[in-house]
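Students often ask why we bother encoding 3D structure as a string. The short answer is that it lets us treat folding as translation between two languages. Here is a chain of 453 residues written in the first language.
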Amino acid sequence: MTKNLLHLFRRSAILFLTLTLLLLIAAYLIPSALRQRERAEAELRVAVQLHALALDRDILGYTDRVRALASRTEIRRALQEHLDGRTSREELLSYTAPRFADGVSVYQDLLAAARYDVHGSLVAAWGGPLAPPAPDVHLESTVVDACDRGDGCIELRVTVPIVEDGRVLGHDVALFRMDGALTAPVAGLTLGLESPAPEPGWRATSEPMPNSGLTLHARYPLRLVRGSPGRMDRITVIYVMLMVLLTLAIGYGTLYRGARRLIDALLKQEQRLVELSSRNELLVRETNHRVKNNLAMVIGMIDLQMEGRDEPRSTAVLTDLRERIRSVSEIHDFLYRGSDLHGVPLVDYLDKLVQQTVNTLARRPVHATISGSATTLPPDTALTVGFLVSELCTNALKYGLAGGGELAVTVTEEQGMIAVAVSDNGPTINPAIDPLNADGFGLRMVRVFVDQL
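And here it is in the second language, the structure alphabet:
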């Protein structure tokens, strides 16, 4: 059984250490995966913001180019003279077209450009006609509109008013092609000027470009940077599931099966111990019963011996001997009748013993009282105390209560010490007798028993 307990303890310790190690690993992996995801998303946000700033800078450059076209003095004055009626439209077109084409041809990323007067009539064009601007373009206002072509490029349309002395003369409109505008510094990043449709496993973010009035939308997959947070999440989940399964397997193999066998063995052993204890208790009770019967037979033999004897001294000796044997018989009677073989209730035992002694030896009426706390003593100790009390009561009945009186036995307990006092209300002891040094058999026996206790 001890080997089984040690074996179960070892397996339980191994299980505990294994689970602790697995939990520590899980406690490291899960926060690590979360930190990696947060870091990846932070890198994405920074990349989108930087790219938005770069596009914003490029759009400002395109706007400045169109403003430079609108600020050319000779073209603006020609348009003003036409609107004032000083020149015809043919003269305006012939004068403006070559100069406008000369001014915009230097821009390699320009797809088309056009100039319109305030009424929306075309004044000059380069690279193909463009739709006139919306009528809500006012003084000092710039309109930027963009279209994502879907091939990684953006077509940017910039409209700038032509102003002279606080008067709007017309508008310059230019269409630029932004090659590589959506190339991001982070692998897997897809950018667009229109919000993409939501897709499973993708996320989107937006960064405004305040100077242009545009908003840059970014769409990117979850598996984006080194370490792949999505994959790490799956690995963590799989790891936790495997850890749970492993824990159940180890628990079944160690605790459940081992403890079940151990419990079965303990139950069987407990049943055997209960049966053995019952047999031993029965044997002890039977032994005590036989001892009591043997003592009763000895007492009966003494009574037979006392019948017909006239010698007082011999009768007194036999009577004392009978009472001493009777006190031994009482302790066995308590063991035989009681439920606890390991302890004797002292007050009950002394009460029965004293009453029996009084009934046997008292020549005149004697009232005996037993009082005290409920104290339990081992059988051997109780037997010795019974001898002492029986002897003291015998002396009291012979010499102190020959004419009757009161006999009291008191049991007290204080600070772990038990005191037993025997007293009577008869004459005091002869001063010539020293109880501690008397030669009588009874007092010598009392001293021996006291020394034994």
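Translate back mentally: Residues 225-229 have pLDDT under 50 and may be disordered. Keep this in mind for the problem set.
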